[in-house]
Design brief:
CATH superfamily: MFS general substrate transporter like domains
Shape: globular
CATH topology: Growth Hormone, Chain: A
Structural class: mainly alpha
Number of domains: 1
Order of helices and strands: HHHHHHHH
Helix content: over 70%
């Protein structure tokens, strides 16, 4: 995590919490796939056709959520709000100064905002309900329905990555993405092994143990998400030069000419 000027304890805590949630969520998503195939085959006697239909339809619904639902929610609750806020700010400024110019970025909120955190927590709630439903389902149709519910929680991963990138400046996004790629690579190796081993130890005895553990894990992620503070970001010292080098030279020349005029007079 970043240290030095512009950082804070809340910034580092946010980055650690969001990175932990992202890694756990990514690992759970990667490790659940093989277990779902084995579990549905042994519990509901699903063949290749039923398994392919389950994976295909839930994946299609996940695409719809990511392409249509998430952008629509973002537009309604963020873009339109920012436009209205910008319009109100412009009207208020013109009331006091008709010639005032409003920067288009005046209403942008640095760091992860409240909408990001609300959507992440909502997605985690869907994941908890999905895996709890997997554990309690005794019929293939019910299991299928909970699969669609879990597909709605697929918005969590892109939102987490977006929230992480909002905490640092543009010059550090590459470092952040590299660190996340390393954590995701480790999760890609560890989680399938752990979940597969857990299923092999409990199959025939308590086959739903994997989904119970995953539901508890998602619950832990939900608890961690409540400790993430909104509007926390890396405060970099930005320079806002009022004049360029050429302008400074022109100002110096003008001062010299004024001094000469004073001397002549």
């Amino acid at each position: 995590y970043p240290t030095g000027t512009g950082t804070s304890l809340h910034l580092r805590a946010n980055l650690i919490l969001l990175a932990a949630i992202n890694t756990l969520l990514f690992g759970a998503a990667i490790g659940t796939g093989p277990v779902l195939i084995f579990y549905t085959g042994s519990t509901f006697d699903w063949g290749d056709f039923e398994t392919q239909m389950f994976i295909g339809l839930t994946s299609a619904f996940r695409v719809v959520v990511l392409i249509l639902v998430l952008p629509l929610v973002t537009y309604i609750f963020r873009t339109r709000y920012q436009k209205r806020a910008r319009r109100r700010a412009a009207e208020a400024a013109r009331t006091h100064d008709p010639d005032a110019a409003i920067s288009p970025d005046d209403t942008r909120t640095p760091g992860a905002d409240t909408l990001d955190l609300v959507l992440i927590r909502g997605a985690l709630v869907l994941e908890i309900a999905c895996h709890a439903g997997y554990a309690s389902a005794r019929h293939g149709g019910v299991f299928f329905a909970f699969g669609f519910l879990g597909a709605g929680g697929s918005i969590a991963l892109p939102l987490l990555q977006s929230a992480l990138s909002k905490h640092v400046g543009a010059d550090r996004v590459g470092q952040l993405l590299g660190a996340m790629a390393l954590l995701n690579g480790l999760a890609r190796v560890v989680f399938p092994t752990l979940l597969g081993e857990l299923y092999s130890l409990t199959v025939g005895k308590f086959s739903q143990a994997v989904f119970v553990v995953l539901a508890v894990t998602f619950g832990l992620m939900g608890v961690l998400s409540w400790f993430v503070r909104p509007h926390v970001y890396l405060e970099t010292e930005e320079t806002h030069p009022t004049t360029t080098t050429g302008d400074e030279c022109a100002d110096l020349l003008a001062d010299e000419l004024m001094d000469e005029e004073v001397v002549v007079r």
